Structures are given as structure tokens and as C-alpha cells.
Amino acid sequence: MSTGPSTGIGTGPNNGPKTGTPPGGAGVPGGEPGAPAPSGGALRSGGPLLEVRDLRVEFRTRDGVARAVDGVSWSVAPGETLAVLGESGSGKSVTAQAAMGILDTPPGRITGGEILFRGRDLLKLREDERRRIRGARMAMIFQDALSSLNPVLTVGDQLGEMFTVHRGMSRRGARAKAVELMERVRIPAARERVGQYPHQFSGGMRQRIMIAMALSLEPDLIIADEPTTALDVTVQAQVMDLLAELRRELGMGLVLITHDLGVVADVADRIAVMYAGRIVETAPVHDLYKAPAHPYTRGLLDSIPRPDRKDADLYAISGLPPNPVAVPPGCAFHPRCPMARDVCRTGEPELSRVSAERESACFFWRECLRG
Ligand SMILES: Nc1ncnc2c1ncn2[C@@H]1O[C@H](COP(=O)(O)OP(=O)(O)OP(=O)(O)O)[C@@H](O)[C@H]1O
Ligand code: SF4
Ligand SMILES: [Mg+2]
Predict the structure, then answer these.
(1) Phi, psi for residue 93 in degrees, rounded to 5
(2) Res 218 pLDDT > 60
(3) Which SMART domains did the record assign (predicted)?
């Protein structure tokens, strides 16, 4: 069932904000880039960079308790890209926010699990220790670049601030660093554009600036939460390619959160599919594309527009994801599942091993694999 470092992903026993660096911060609000590692011993090297283990997050709402994240486990290694996929409300962002330490508590509450960064449980660190890690070692990129950038500061000033405030560099040195970063994220004419304001850049270029901010302090890990959703399809592909290239160049770990299975095929190494706060399938990306082992993943794959199909042929998974305060009993996917049988309405399928690197939380994964 669950997974440990072997597959890197899984679910437990039963199974926002904006990019990288908001104005004045690094990676996430309150970051302290450049600061030394937290006290209490050196961080362990080797093994996964970030490991989420059996994480549980709840929200108390007027309608009841929403189990937004219900026993999720995944991990990412240096140089690896993990895509976390699922429809709206499946718990992707809440997992990421908990991992980064930027979850609003309240209303959210982490009720269980561990978040290990190079083997140290971030949930047990003091807030100042946590801030140092997320500033210098982990950064986050969000969907909405425009509202993350300060409209009254030039992009050069915003990028440079990383280096003046956190690294004590001169303004001139910081400006040179800003240009270097803009070039690194392939912004044409960086030297000329460094003095421009965010609104003077296109959506795709603004997202590149956010990526530059996230990269500024050379983090070990970037979590990108729907980094291309606001962009048109061509620009989406360019930004994805850029992230993949940078990950290779810099050897970072990358967690790529998306609801669009179509955008991750060429970028991710592994995929974790979430449904109603749980992981329902994990697999190396090519295995999953070739033959999904969960009907939900199959539905997502069939929903990807393909050039050989007319729009009218496009499949859509019937129904809607469940309300998190009233998740159906049994398999949470059963009301929408074309393969559901009686047992699915009462029995809760746990993640089980499909192969050395794959898991599925479906009673009938063998049938699903066969197509
Ligand atoms: N502040 C909040 N108060 C109450 N419930 C919340 C809050 N934030 C998130 N949730 C609930 O947690 C669940 C998971 O939300 P999350 O934002 O992680 O979804 P997601 O998978 O990232 O979806 P999307 O693709 O729309 O970004 C949702 O059902 C949502 O309603
Ligand atoms: S356990 Fe049943 S309802 Fe759930 S995905 Fe598998 S076949 Fe469908
Ligand atoms: Mg989200």
C-alpha cells in the first residue's frame, strides 16, 4: 500500500498566494534566503529532497469538516520532476502549501503526517528555522504572476531586492544579477527590459520573471502550482519547457502541480494522481500514459484533446468531484466511475502495488490496465 522511498509517492494508511517570490520575499512570504541551515545539525544529504508522509489537512467549515488532504504521501528527489495531478478541489495546492509552510492555519489544520526536507520534519521546526529553509532551499511559483509582482516597482528592482536585502549586494551588483536571471529564463533583451514594469511584459514573460525570482537564491526544490494555467497553449508549452530545462541545468527537484495531464507528458518523471484528498494512482509518466491503472486516470487521459479527434469526440468524466465535507463512502470515485460495482460503494480501496514503481487505489486495477 503506501509508499515509501521506493516509489516515492502514495497515500497513507487509509489512505493562494502567488510565485516564487512575492515582492520583498523569496520564494514565499517571509523567506530568508541566503540564511544558513536551521540549527540542530546539518541537513542529511542523499535520499529524497522533500518527502510528504501521510499528510492530513482539515478545514472546519459551516457545513462540517472538510478533509482536504487525507493521508497523502509523495516524495521528490534531486533532479527529479514529480507531477501532482487532479481536478479542482482534489487537495493539490493545500498539500503544497502545507509542505512550504504557507498554509493559512486557521482555517486549515494539519492533523497528521510528516513533511521531511532532506530527512528533517519541517513540522517540528520552529517558525524561524522553517522560514530559513523555505527561503533559501525551497521556492514556490504560483499561477497568477501579475498579482504576485509589485506593479510600482521595475522587475529589475524586484529581482535585485533578493540580492540587496538578502545578500547585502550593492544596487549595481543586484541589477547585474537581475539581468543575469532574466537571461537565464530566456527573456529577450534583458538588459534593456530590466527597467520596465510588470504590466509592460506579456503573461508568459511575467511568468518567466516569477520563475527567475524563485530561482534567484538557487533553491534545491521548486514547487510550481499551476504555473501555466493562466497562459495560452503555445506559451504554456514554452514555460513548461523552460522549467524542464532549468531543472536539468540546475539539478533541482521540481514538483509540478496541474489539473492538465496534457502538459506534463514531456516534463515529468513520475505522476501522482489525486482525487478527493487522496492519491489514487502513482506511476512513471510513460507507464501511466501507456496504460492507466485507475479509471479516474483513464478518464483524465481520455479528456486530453488530440489532433486525431474532433472536439465533439472529446470525453469528459461524468459528474463532479465530491464536496469535501461529504465524500462518498467506499471508493470516493464510485459515483462517477464507469467500472464501479457493488463492492466499490462500501469497500475503501487502498493503494496497492501494481509494479515496482506503480500503485493504484482501485479494486479492479488489473482490468483497468488491460483497457
Ligand atoms: N481556506 C479554505 N477554507 C475551507 N476549505 C478550503 C480552504 N482552502 C482549501 N479548501 C478546501 O480544500 C480542498 C482542496 O483545495 P485545494 O486548493 O488544495 O484544491 P486543488 O486541488 O489545488 O484545486 P485547484 O485545481 O482548483 O487549484 C478543496 O475542497 C477546498 O474547498
Ligand atoms: S474501486 Fe471501483 S469505483 Fe473505485 S475506481 Fe475502482 S472500479 Fe471505480
Ligand atoms: Mg490549486
Answers:
(1) -70, -40
(2) yes
(3) AAA
The reported pLDDT for the residue numbered 138 is 92
Nearest atom in ligand 1 to the alpha carbon of residue 86 is: 21
Say how many Å lie between the CA of residue 89 and the centre of ligand 3: 7
Nearest-CA residue for atom 4 of ligand 2: 331
* Ligand sitting nearest the alpha carbon of 280: 2
pLDDT of amino acid 245: 87
Measured CA to CA in angstroms, residue 206 lies from 88, 172, 258, 280, 365 at distances of 24, 23, 19, 34, 42
Q: Which ligand is nearest to the CA of 336?
A: 2
**48 three-class SS:** coil
**CA 140 – ligand 3 centroid, Å:** 13
How many angstroms separate the alpha carbon of residue 336 from the centre of ligand 1?
20
Q: Name all residues whose Cβ lies below 6 A of ligand 2.
A: 294-295, 331, 333-334, 337, 339-340, 344, 349, 362-364
68 lines ligand 1 (CB under 6 A): yes
Per-residue pLDDT tens for 235-256? 888 888 888 888 888 899 999 9
- Which residue has the least CA distance to atom 3 on ligand 2? 334
Cβ contacts of 296 within 8 Å, gap of 6 or more: 273, 275, 280, 281, 317, 333, 336, 337
Answer for the pair 94, 69: CB distance below 8 angstroms, yes or no: yes
CATH code for the domain defined by 9-152+197-370: 3.40.50.300
Q: Is 282 helix (H, G, I), strand (E, B) or coil?
A: strand
Instruction: Decide whether any atom of ligand 1 lies within 6 Å of the 122 Cβ.
Output: no
Which is the closest atom of ligand 1 to the Cα of 87? 25
Q: Mean of the per-residue pLDDT values for the chain?
A: 84
Q: Is the peptide bond before 106 cis (omega within 30 degrees of 0)?
A: yes
Q: Which residue has the higher pLDDT, 234 or 224?
A: 224
Please give the angle made by the CA atoms of 22, 27 and 33, to the nearest 5 degrees: 115
For 299-334, write each residue's pLDDT tens digit: 999 888 776 666 656 778 889 999 999 999 999 999
